[in-house]
Amino acid sequence: MNDLFDAARDRASCCTAAAMRLVPSLEGQDKITRALLNEAMTTAFGGSDADGRWTQRESFEVLELALALAMRNRSTDRLHVAHDDVLQAAVLLDRLPTQTVRSEEQIEWQQFSTPLDLAAVALILAAPMRSTRGDASRLEQIIAWAGDDFEGVIAWDEAHEMGGVAGGEGSMIAKKGSQQGIAGVVLQNRLPGARVLYASATGASEVNNLAYAVRLGLWGPETSFANREAFITEIRQGGIAAMELVARDLKATGLYTARALSFAGVEYDILRHELTPEQVEVYDAYADAWGIIHRNMEKALELTGVVDPLKGDTLNSGAKAAARSRFESCKQRFFGAVLLSCKLPTVIAAVRQHLEAGQSVVLQLVSTAEAILDRRLGELSPDERAELDLDLSPREAIIDYLQRAFPVQQMTPYRDDTGEIRSRPMFDERGTPVTNPEAEAARDDLIEQLCALPPIAAVLDGVLEHFGHDNVAEVTGYDPRRRCATTPTASAAGKTAARWSRAHAHRAKVASPLPIPVPSARATGAAISGCATGSTMSA
After folding, report:
1. What DSSP designation does 405 have?
2. 131-135, 145-149, 249-253 — which is least confidently predicted?
3. Where are the domains of the chain?
4. Strand, coil or helix: what is 143?
5. Which one of 124, 179, 475, 524 is at 20 to 30 Å from 296 when CA atoms are compared?
């Protein structure tokens, strides 16, 4: 093992030496030819690529390192990237050899470096906006360019990126306002005559995220709120209903526009599924399991010091809120997936009827367990991947929650500025988080109990299993090459779930969205409705 590390260290030293030989040429005006690059590599490695001392792929990686070293040397006497840097980067790029040696893996995953001139542009557009060092910050450049009498438009695309301007409670500790959000608010305040447009897909999901929208008139003189802090506090107390009132009032005054797809010509029909006694029994078993998990989670909050076990006082509100939020969100997603699985027999029967009638069917799924699949694949060895047998049923979502979000990190008490006792995460002398052994034992015991519960069929895998992979086309934002799950009852090798079918585009299409209803504590055996079909909606 020591020989292996020594060999890796020696190779890294040779790469650094070759890069250092290229730096003077990069800083000068020399054209970096293949011959110059090969000479630097041969000198550093004591032999050529023909001798097997290095590869052409490694030579281009060394060139990337040399570029980084040269740019670092150039930036030691300045704080920010300027427009001239983009022009100089473009000139330098023309002096570099074309990288034509690419592995199959690089081509498959598009693993290529960002061109030097585009990297310089990205630096100008990104980091300097947040910087406040000196008078040369990008923010000051924009304000100086616009002038005090600027009356043009400031359009904020992805405006929610400024949502952290007001700070707030984090999952463990309080967070300060983000530099990007502060810079955005400063720009609006420094240019009072400018028109402002906020564009965001998630702008009002959390009231704190509206803190950057200083031009909407939500607080201040002639409003119901004296300042931003009062607005955030009172609207947060009102919950989602208060947020809806804010959106309604903004729409009424013409300050807010939200677009949606038209449903003109769409016909709806209710597809009902009657729960079987077996499905009710499975639902109730998991409802009881979630009750046990909830009680164990509350106990773990006491064991880890998030809550005072004697007085019941909350010592770390951020950690407590995060733990409960993750618990509730996972529970909602789980029971939604369970109800989808329960509907599967009825949905499959309806799909068959439409196919026999010469129609195409589009099924809209809320979740395909892609994130869990990626994590499970990352945990497998090459041998295990060769004999793939994964369970991606909704039960895996609970186990994933317990492994990743169940509160096990130990807290340590301290007194805040007001003298109140609070708690914060504990770390050892090496900076590693300290965990509570009792909370870990409770979590592991819960995982063991869950593994004994009955499996639940994943909807996507159930559809693929029934109709066959060649007859189902998966339209997804995820990478179809990664899908290779199996149904909970399968023990053979995994099945690829992303083959495109040879669908007939001219056939009438039926869309069947499978929504996630809010579940009750226990199943009642009543019919579950909500699977709609329409004759005119296309993919």
Report:
1. H
2. 131-135
3. 2-102+112-128, 138-252, 269-533
4. helix
5. 524
Q: Assign 52 to helix, strand or coil.
A: coil
Return the bridge partners of 197, or none. Answer: 155
Say if residues 345 and 328 touch (Cβ distance below 8 Å).
Answer: no
Q: 61 with 111: CB under 8 angstroms? A: no
C-alpha angle with apex 491: 489 to 492, nearest 5 degrees?
130
Please name the amino acid found at residue 466: H
CA nearest neighbour of 478 among 465, 459, 461, 497: 497
Q: What does DSSP assign to residue 517? A: P
3-state SS, residue 199? strand
Q: Is 267 helix (H, G, I), strand (E, B) or coil?
A: coil
Helical (H) or strand (E) element with 377: helix 370-378
Determine the Cα–Cα distance for residues 145 and 365; give it in Å rounded to an integer: 49
* Residue 457 or residue 225, greater confidence: 225
- In sign, the C-alpha dihedral spanning 4, 6, 12, 18 is negative
pLDDT tens by residue, 182-236: 888 999 999 999 999 998 877 666 787 788 888 999 998 888 898 888 898 888 8
Integer-rounded Cα radius of gyration of the chain: 29
Cα distance from N-terminal residue to C-terminal residue, the chain: 55
CA–CA gap between residue 459 and residue 393 (Å, rounded): 9
